[in-house]
Amino acid sequence: MRPLEVVILAGHLLTIGWLYAHIQGSPAAEQAAVLIVPLVIVLHVLWEKPRWQMAPAYGQAGVVLAVAWAGKWTAFGVNGWAIFCGIVLYLASVVLPYVLAVPHLPRPAGPYAVGTRTFYLVDKTRSDAFGPDQTEPRELMVQVWYPAEKKPNARRAPFIADFKIGGPAIARRFGFPPFVVRHVDLVRTHSFLAAPAAEAGGPFPVLTFSHGYLGLHSQNTWQMEELASQGYVVVAPNHTRGAIVTVFPDGRVVFGLTTLPDDMSPEQAGRLGMQQWAADVQFVLDQLACWQAEVGHSFYGRLDLSRIGCFGHSMGGGAAVHLAAGEARCRALLLLDPWLRPVDEAILQQGLDVPVLSLMSEGEFGRINGQLAEQLTANGRADGLVATIAGTGHYDYSDLPLLSPATRLFGAKGPINGRRAARIINDYTLAFFDTYLRERPSPLLKEAKPYPEVQIHPV
After folding, report:
1. Contact 439, 339 (CB under 8 A)
2. Helices (H), ranges, 361-450
3. For residue 330, what are the β-bridge partners?
4. Helix, strand or coil for residue 151?
5. Displacement of CA 335 from its chain's centroid (Å)
6. CB 64 within 8 A of CB 21
7. Rounded to 5 degrees, what angle do the CA atoms 352, 272, 279 make?
8. How far apart are CA 390 and CA 335, in angstroms?
9. How far is 299 from 292, CA to CA, in rounded Å?
């Protein structure tokens, strides 16, 4: 919960406790005491912004204020039903904002401030494989996180762009009514919109990220911000029709496909989607080369395109495998609980000529795809690694577990603490890319095991 929300709830407890302890006290003191929480609520509304989960706390303040100022506190205090209702209301005031708290993303630990920009790109050489009109070009929204110079009064980036459109779509994806997730729009990221790229330390190595099926390009914001703060430029396309929602600058909205073509199995559609997503990333890499050479562009001279790493989650991990198999610019590949069943069998049999680190979840999804990751690794370079992080579920490799402690009840995460999982994933991500893109070998990839949750698979 946010600071003033905690103060409001604590203030309720202290105010009501004081009123019961001084039930025969002076009316002036009583009326002054009950004003404290409403004043904090006013500050909370102005600074933190209100949200529906705090409605019981707002209502309790109104009830206490009305009863006290009407001079009926004595009668209220001896009424058993009133006490019971007050306790229920207070419990609701605590439980709702805790279970559906405004998430706090982990603060990036690197030396750089984090900037972010979003671009609209059109690939006129391709059409959308799943689009209704095969004559239309492939359109993408792409977000970039990068090391930046922090400027005074810089504006924070939203957690999810165009949330008024995307929020309801995300809620429906997990079976919630749309109002349940409205508070997510109050999340404060650690990224600054359109901040100038950092001058010192560049040009910076580049990483590409592909989200999962019906995910979002910003679904791993905690990871993007950490990598950018450590001196990486991270580029994430929103894979149109594979992302849960894509909003274009002209206001058009394209939702992710939830039904497959009649003549396709899930594996066939997945393979076709992965190939299209890999082509998306290749197109984005071509755009980066243009930006790097374009005088006056915000990324002119700031990108080191000789040091490119790729990573992805779930279906995005499979797409990253297809990318690495056919893209010589990719020098290191990180897979976050990837969906590998649709990956071309020839790729699994041949392996990859780049170092690969696969971080797998526990459970059936991680076990089945972990076996395929072992096959891919065994047939590739000798320095590949496959590891399982104990206690993780499939969505622990995204932002979702940080949104609410209740996500585990819906099977959206494993028993591991969400922040603990994020820290482990970030440490291994940095160790891996630092080793192969910056020539900074890390003991984390060898014998050192500071995290007992990490289990390395023999391959």
Report:
1. no
2. 364-378, 418-437
3. 308
4. coil
5. 16
6. no
7. 65
8. 16
9. 6
Tally of CA atoms within 13 A in the half-sphere of 107 that contains its CB: 2
Can you tell me the distance from the alpha carbon of 202 to that of 189, in angstroms, rounded to the nearest whole number?
24
Contact residues for 25 (Cβ-Cβ < 8 A; gap 6+): 19
245-247 and 330-336 as β-strands: parallel, antiparallel, unpaired?
A: unpaired
pTM, to two decimals: 0.88
Q: What is the rounded average pLDDT of the residues 38-54? A: 91
Q: Report which DSSP code applies to 2.
A: -
Contact by Cβ (8 Å): 195, 154 = yes
Continuous segment of H or E residues that includes residue 343: none
Rounded distance between C-alpha atoms, residue 141 and residue 286, angstroms:
15
Whether 42 contacts 58, CB under 8 Å: no
Task: Decide: 315 and 274 in contact? Cβ < 8 Å.
Answer: yes
Q: Which pair of tokens denotes residue 195?
A: 């901040």
In this structure, the number of other CB atoms found within 10 A of the CB of residue 398 comes to 27
Structure-block tokens of residue 46: 């102005």
Q: What are the pLDDT digits (tens) for 95-110?
A: 888 888 888 899 999 9
Cα separation, 227 vs 145, in Å, equals 8
Dist CA 160 CA 167 (whole Å): 8
CA–CA distance from 12 to each of 6, 7, 58, 456 (Å)?
10, 9, 10, 50
Lowest-pLDDT choice from 12-26, 67-81, 131-145: 67-81
Contact 38, 67 (CB under 8 A): no
Q: How far is CA 287 from the centre of its chain?
A: 25
Instruction: Phi first, then psi: give them for residue 46, nearest 5 degrees.
Output: -75, -35
C-alpha closest to that of 361 among 335, 325, 328, 337: 337
CA distance 365 to 396: 13
Buried b (16+ CB within 10 A) or exposed e, 105-120: bbebebebbbbbbbbe
CA distance 249 to 265: 33
Specify which residues 38 forms β-bridges with. Answer: none
CB 240 within 8 A of CB 126: no
Q: 180 burial class (0-12, 13-18, 19+ CB within 10 angstroms)?
A: middle
Q: At what angle do helices 55-69 and 36-47 cross, to 10 degrees?
A: 150
Binned at pLDDT 50, 70 and 90, residue 277 comes out as very high
How many C-beta atoms surround the C-beta of residue 88 within 10 A? 11
| Average confidence (pLDDT) over 18-32 | 63
Tell me the C-alpha distance between 210 and 286, whole Å: 16
